[in-house]
Amino acid sequence: MRSATFARVLFTLLLCAAAFWAGARFGPRLFQGGSGHGAAAAETWVCPMHPEVVLDHPDMCPKCGMPLTKVGAPSAKASGPGLQIDPAMVQNMGLRVASVTRGPLRRTLRAPGILRVAEPRRQEVTLKVGGWVERLHAATEGQRIRAGETLFELYAPELLVAQDELRAAGAVLAATPADAAEARRDAASLVEAARRKLELLDLDAGTIDAIATAPAPLRTLPFRARIDGILVERAVLQGAAVQPGQRLLTVADLSELWLDARVFEHDLALVREGLATQVTLAAQPGRTFTGRVEFVQPVLDEATRTAAVRVVVGNPDGALRPGMYAQVAIEVPLADDAVQVPGEALLDTGTRRIVFVAKALGHYEPREVRAGRAGADGTVEVLAGLVPGETVVASGQFLLDAESRLREAMGKLGGHALHTTAATQPQSRPALQVDAALRQRVDALLLPYLKLAESLAADGYDAAAVADLRAAAATLAAARPAGIEDLVVGLPAAVDALASGRPEFRGAHFVPLSDAVVRLAEVVAPSPAVADRLYVVRCPMPPVDGQGLWLQRSEAVRNPFFGSKMLECGDVLRTVPAGGR
Fold it and tell me: Which residues, listed in sequence order, are joined to residue 122 by a DSSP beta bridge?
């Protein structure tokens, strides 16, 4: 009896020891993996970009080729509505934060332009009588001219007649008795009419006075400059005969110039007269010239989608010259009091804007915000979702976003590992043997598609390529080719969505169109006229839901969805060789 009791006690002690050892050994893993799950949950590996791909061992994602992430690692775990990141991992991820601020919102619009002479500061010297330029004083272009300086001396028979009229009227006035008031008034009227005639022929008051007091008519009469400036054009030689209406000289005051800048239509609503500007030129490195907006053209150029904005620029030392290229920066006040964050803190999904708010140490909360206008230095106005004083992640938030999607997916899966099988692998359709007509239609689609992809990767937008792409898509969809009807029927709508979308979302609108074109090109290979081979590239983080695939001619990755922001983000998956050889 006593031995049996001892045996039961010994068994109980051994059981307790085993339980204690198991709790010490596996307890932390069970806690990290979530309550109610076995130890195997701590060994779950998931793709950050495709949370549906879940394995029980480390591997590469079969869809995008990215390394799978181990779920339950102490560096990152779910914590309330956000994420809890180990401080050491925060440093490794390169997370950078910024404060939400409040204050005036400003924006700087930059536009190219060309300097030219300000029209009110320009004197075109033309004649109203015919004659001969007997002496030319303003003979060299670039010559400095002073107001009142003689430009040339003109002999003109019509001026001789006008001089005689003034002298005769003066003689009549001088001979009229002082007590003959009415006669003197008539004589004075004749003098005034004669003087007015000479004024209308562009003679100055000093010259007219000299004519009136001269003992005989002057053979030549001087024509003088009305403004200070530079002789910018000379179209006459000394001794030349001239006709009424002929332009002889152009004098320009260059102390102020006009800069005609071209501003795109989506920025025109921000520009108004009186705004301060800063002007820089490659010809004057290190210098900045101040100016102001004087006029905004009310008509838009349909070809360039721009309108001219005239800026008056001071040129006190003559460093600026008409014809120079310049860049103008127009300071535009957007709001006197606005909540602002750095633009890089926003994650744009195409339909929503997300920021990660830094809470307690290592805790980050994803939050949807409503963004407003973009300000200077990359700041963005926040209309709702944030308050001043909060801290947001401004760099590295893509890693947080991937981790957030992973945790959300694992929560929906209940923490259970799913094994990827052959049935879940992406299936490709075999290439078709097609006739030359169909291949030609596909080529007509691929050529503008490739041009558009290259333009988007360079932060541009090729409107002509989009027009060609729309026509080619409509032709293919109308033909309804057998075997690929499902691949072409949605192409026109995808092109229309891209063409009508907002400019800042063009990369996102390109995703569904590009996915469809890649699927088509892999079934109907292009001809060598397009390329000997095309490279199929995939972006691991497309801006909207989709495969994130695109085609390009070169092997060097050029991402059309993000452009220069993430130009080399992507991996070459495979190639599409040319067909129909």
Answer: 252
Contact 394, 358 (CB under 8 A): no
**Residue 390 to residues 85, 223, 247, 348, 377: CA-CA distances in angstroms?**
18, 73, 68, 20, 20
Q: Which residue is listed with tokens 């060309």?
A: 114
State pLDDT tens for residues 495-520. Answer: 988 888 778 888 888 998 999 999 99
CA dist 376 and 378 (Å) reads 5
The residues, any chain, with a CB within 8 Å of residue 478's CB and separated by 6 or more, are none
Run of H or E including 187? helix 181-200
Q: Which residues in the chain land under pLDDT 70?
A: 1-53, 63-95, 349-351, 360-362, 395-431, 580-581
Is 98 exposed, middle or buried, given 0-12, 13-18 or 19+ CB atoms closer than 10 A? middle
Both structure tokens of 54? 């879940």
Place of tokens 């179209």: 235
Which domains, from first to last, does the chain contain? Answer: 33-94+396-427 (no CATH), 96-108+256-354+366-386 (2.40.30.170), 119-252 (2.40.50.100), 430-577 (no CATH)
In angstroms, the CA 248 to CA 379 distance is 54
Helices 436-457/506-523 angle, 10° precision: 150
Question: What spatial distance separates the first Cα and last Cα of the chain, rounded to whole Å?
Answer: 95
State residue 313's pLDDT score: 93
- Please name every residue paired with 106 in a beta bridge, in sequence order, or none if there are none: 333
Instruction: Give me the count of residues in the chain.
Output: 581
Q: How far apart are CA 250 and CA 261, in angstroms?
A: 24
pLDDT value at residue 126: 92
Q: What is the pLDDT at residue 380?
A: 84
User: What's this model's pTM, rounded to 2 decimal places?
Assistant: 0.46
Give residue 328's identity as a one-letter amino acid code.
Answer: V
Question: Which H or E run includes 15?
Answer: helix 2-33
